[in-house]
Amino acid sequence: MSTQQQVQAGDNNIVGDRPHLTIHCPPQERSKVTEPTPSDAALLRPGVEATEFVGRSDFLDDFTRWARAHDPKRPVSVRVVHGGAGVGKTRFALELCRALGPDWQAGFVPVKEA
Fold first, then answer.
1. What SUPFAM superfamilies would the database entry show (predicted)?
2. Which range of residues forms the domain containing residue 90?
């Protein structure tokens, strides 16, 4: 990468001509709760997946269609999911990654890289 293609950010990250983030993709198969959890509240963590994903299929279908659509005039498209704590944003993202399948590079960036 040439010097002109790099920018040194104030936080010592180098922004270049390709992404350098580590993306952790969720497994294609849902996890099964097989071991006891430290508390009932731990069952609510999105990665535990102690319950079925219900009630958001229209939302998931809409995002899946949007993600698979491609308009050459608009090479970048962004959507935002927002809501209060515990309403299911992370769980929705897990399900969206699965719905997009292995052909997509979709997942989660570690906290230190975010």
1. P-loop containing nucleoside triphosphate hydrolases (SSF52540)
2. 55-113
